[in-house]
Each structure stands twice: as structure tokens, then as C-alpha cells.
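Case study.
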Amino acid sequence: MDDASTPLLEIADLHVRIGEREILSGVDLTIAEGETHVLLGPNGGGKTTLLNTILGMPGYEISQGTIAFRGQDLAALSIDERARLGIGVAFQRPPAVRGIKLRQMMRVAAGADFDDAELSAIAEEVDVAEMLDRDVNLGFSGGEAKRAEMAQLLAQQPALAMFDEPESGVDLDNIAVVGAAMHRLLRGERANAARRAGLIITHTGHILQYVTADVGHVLYEGRLACRGNPLDLIADISSQGYERCVECAACNR
Amino acid sequence: MQQMTNAFTAEQRTRLEEIQRLAEAAAEKPAALGPDVDLSAFRTVPEHDRVASIESIQRQIRETALMSGFTSDESQRSASYFQLDRTPIYERVMEAFGGQVEVMSTEDALGRYPEEMLSKWWWRAVPADKDKYTALVALHQTEGYFIRVKAGAKVEKPIQACLFVSESDVTQNVHNVIVVEDGAEASVITGCNVHTSVREGLHAGISEFFVGKGATLTFSMIHNWAEQFSVRPRTAIVVDDDGTYVNNYVLLKPVKSIQSFPIARLEGARSRAVFNTIVYGLKDSIIDLGSETQLIGEGSRSEAIARTVSKDRSTVYSRGRLVARTDSAKAHLDCRGIVQSHESTQWAIPDLASEGAPGAELSHEAAISPIAAEEVFYLMSRGMPKDEATSMITRGFVNIEIPGLPEPLRRTIDTAIEETSKESM
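After joint prediction, the assembly is written out as follows.
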């Protein structure tokens, strides 16, 4: 099923409701193994909804369309089953869990065969050694929370890594640490690791100074309105705004 | 007691008679809290022979005691006391701690130190006429331990004590005294256990602890009772200047009913009390636990943390009372509960009072709520199935960090929580 012709992630005509309200109205998105995509778009445009729907979070009702991962329909799979298939996420605002340490979360994410040396190496890579024995996300600063999310993703090594606004609420030093780790993960520049596919939600595009992305999309009013070079799209959006951007000829594909 | 009284002075005999009178007057007095226990249903626990070593104690008893942190590996402990039913069958202070720690039964202590015992400790913190359970112990006492840590001694290894009940339909009525003299530090692990064959019974225990100036006592207790067993401890702690009392209490097994409400009197300036409580309410258990801290000395501080999980048909009361009598007192309560069954009930009852202390700062956080779904989803998003995620979060919820908890006890508690959460899934 996962031969070269089958995309890693294939979303077709996806309509998603939250309660009575339709948030996504026909999204088509294909991500091949090892490709990094960027999702741009205004607040409330449905970016996080798309990500949560891929994850299988409850409350996101698919009224039409499909999501397939390596050819397998995800509809009937729970959050943890999708994670074990190879879908990983760094949340924008992860919840604090009292009594569960970051170290334990990394072990959960890694599954079997994860030794102390690997854990320490990751902790050093994203500077979370001091946080390993703290309750995960409890009282973490913005930067600490992002680094902790990154540490869990590095432990998980998912085939598809999704990032929800990795630069929000974080100072430049932390963006650099997180961004560099994202780049190494996605580009296969870590020891014994192949390239991973990525889906990055970003508002400002700052993170793209650190991560090389292949394709950019603008999610606007529930649809992917534009596709193009991520940096070009960001330049257009910053000079013209989303509304003008999605009206331009290049977007009317 | 009767045969010993000849050894006492007239004044001491008067005091003993006073205790007896108070107790007799309270013999029918119901407790303020908890279901009433019919004392006539029980006889007194039997006597046993003494043993030469912990190894000579029957294996099943030793293994049960181990669940409360009482180990036969005495190299891990500074001193041990083992009471089987009414008989102190073993007590020993390890050589390295000779001169620092004294361990004996309270009857022995009364015989050896009648003056100190009667004037300072014996029924000085807990009133003999508090209720029918204190009266029961005062009138029909079945030993209990006396532990004294000498002034200035820093005892790194824990002292362990086990009070074991081996038969059904009995009452064990123990009276315990711990004295930590000025500048001393010690950790006491106490396990109260019943034999696996025991069904009904009552444990009534008086505990009077005295923490001297600049001294620290960490008292940790893991309880393993039986489904038809009733437990009525009566505990009071008096803390002197700069003294610290830490109370760790863990109950992870079913019990018929337990009602306990230790009172810490922070009499000394800058004295501190910390209560950490972990409770699983299982089956038909009625669990009524809490603590009262009286902040009397200038600058006294206190903190009480309780985590309660209730299942099945259990009822859990989690009480906490802070009473400030000095302007500079500060104290906080934090009790959180999770109810996991439609047939289970939990009460969180924080209770704060400032008695003429306008400057005192007392606060509480009390919450009863389920595990947040977003926390479960978070663990699931890392690949953990829902049931395992829920169980792991529950374990994390109850497994509060207890600073100063002896490491072996930490492991015992971790294991016990692990097992309880597995069994109750």
C-alpha cells in the first residue's frame, strides 16, 4: 500500500462541521512521503480544524470526503491508532497534565525500544533536560512548551509531523531551537533518520527562516484557495493581505 | 497497667486515676464524625510469643507488612518495632543508631520513664474522653509503640513500626507516642495491616507526637485493612519553635470504615505542618479523613494536600481545617477528587477559621472533577490507547510529590498505586 505511487496523506473533498457550523468546505490536499507543506490563512479560516480532523479529535464531524494515510481510510481510527500509524503533532497550546512528567510523555511517544541515551540526546537537542521531571506543560513558559512538544515529536519520529503555529508566543531564541530541530526532523538530518513529511501551520511565516518547506497553501473560508512557493505566498499576503491574495490569478487554479 | 501502678508515685497514680475516670465517663460517647462502631461485637486481640528476628515472623505476615513499607531488610532502617495483635513481638535499634533512637512499647516506656511520660506525653495531646474510641484505648489498651529520637540526632534511615492484626472479630487498641527532641530529625514509617484471613475487626489507635525545637518528624503511613474492618485513629501532634511535622498518609485498599482527623498544634514560633494524603475509595468503603492545623506560634505555616479517587460504592470525605490564632500565620489547603462511579460519593470539606488573627492568611482550593478529556486526548495523540491514558493520568493525579519521603517508601507507594489502578480498571 505504501509504494511510491501512494501518497502519504491524501485528503479529498473534506467537509468538516463543528456542531452546526461547517468549517471546512471541500479541502483537497496531498502530501507525499518526505514533503513539507505549509498552511497559511487568516484566524478562523479552519487551519487548526484541519489539523485536529487529521488527528481524529472528537467534535470534528466529517460530513463529506475522506482522509487516507498511506492509502488507509482514517475515518474509523481513534487518535492513538492514527498516532501509531505515524501521525504526530506539536500542539499550539498543549494541556498541562498534573503528575505526568515530560520524560514519561517522551517515553509514551517513542513507544517500545527507547533507551535513556536516546532520551538524553533529544533532551539536549531541544534543551529540555531541566524540564524532564516536571509535570508536562504545568507552568511551562511559551518557549518551554514548544520545546517540550518538539521533544515528544522527536521521540515519536512520525512519518507525518504536524505543527500548529510553532512560533506563536515564543521569543526568537526559542524559535531558533525549535525551528532547527524541525528542520533536522523533516529533512532527515538526524542520525539514522529518513526525511519526514511535515504540515506546518504558520501565521507569520517566521518559522520558515529555519525550515525548508516544499509547498505552501492558503486556507481561506474553508477551502485551500492558493498553492505555491511558501515564501512567495507569504510575501504576497504581507503586501496585499489574504483577501487580495486569494483573488489573484495564481490562486484561481 | 494494674500491676504496674505500684511503681508510681502518689501524684502519678492520681493522674492515672484521672485518665481512667475521664475514659469511663466517655465510654459510650459517640465520635463527632464517622459511622458508629458497636464495640460489644469484638473481643481484645490475643497475645503471642516474642520473636528473635523479623525473619522468624510468619512469611505471610511479613509479606503483608511489606506492603506498608515494613521490610525485613533492617539495613535499610534505623530501628524496628513489630506488634502482632497485642504483643510487641520484636523491637530493635540498629547498632549504628544506638544512643540516638529508643524504641519500646508504651507500657515499657511508662515503666521506665513514668515521670516524663505522665507529665509530658501520655494523654497530654489527645484527651482520653474525646469519644468512645479514646476511652476504649484508655481502659483496654493493647500496647503500642514509644519512639524517642534524642536531641540533635539526625537519623537518616527511617524507623519502622508495624501494628498487625491476625484474627477476626477483635479490637486492637494501641497507644503510640513519638518524641523527637530538640534539633533531632527522623522519619517514621508505620504500617497497619491485617492478615489476609481477617474479616471484621476494629483498630483504635491513639498517637501523640511531640516535635521539639528545630526538630523534624516525617511520619508516613500506608494502611492495608480488610473490607469489614473499622479504623478509628485519634492523633495529635504538638510542634515547638522551628519544628516541622510532615504527615504522609496513603490508603489504597478497601476498608469498612475509617475516620481520622489528626490535629496538629503549631505552638512554636515558625513551626510547620504538612499533610499529604492519597486515598483510593474502593468497594463499600466509608472513608472520612482530614486534618486540623492550629496555627498558634508566631510565623507558623501549614499546608495540606489531598488527592482522592473514589470508585464502586465508596463514600469519601476529604476534610481540612485551618485555624489561625496568630497574625503572622499562613496556611493553604489543596484537595482534589475524582469520582469514577455513579454509586460513589465524595465530599470535599475545607474549613478555615481566623480566631482573632486579622493578619492571618488562610486559603484553599477544593475541586471534584473528572479527568479532563483534553488530557486524555493529549496522551492518545502520542499513541497511547484511551484506557491506558486514563489510568496513567489517574496515577499521576494521586501520586503527589512528597518532598522528604523516604525513597523505599516512594517505590512502595508507586507500586501500590500502580496495582490499585490496574485492579480497579
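Observations recorded in class. Chain B touches chain A at residues 372-375, 377-386, 389, 392-393, 395-400 (CB under 8 Å). Chain B is about 20% helix and 40% strand. We will return to this complex in the next lecture.
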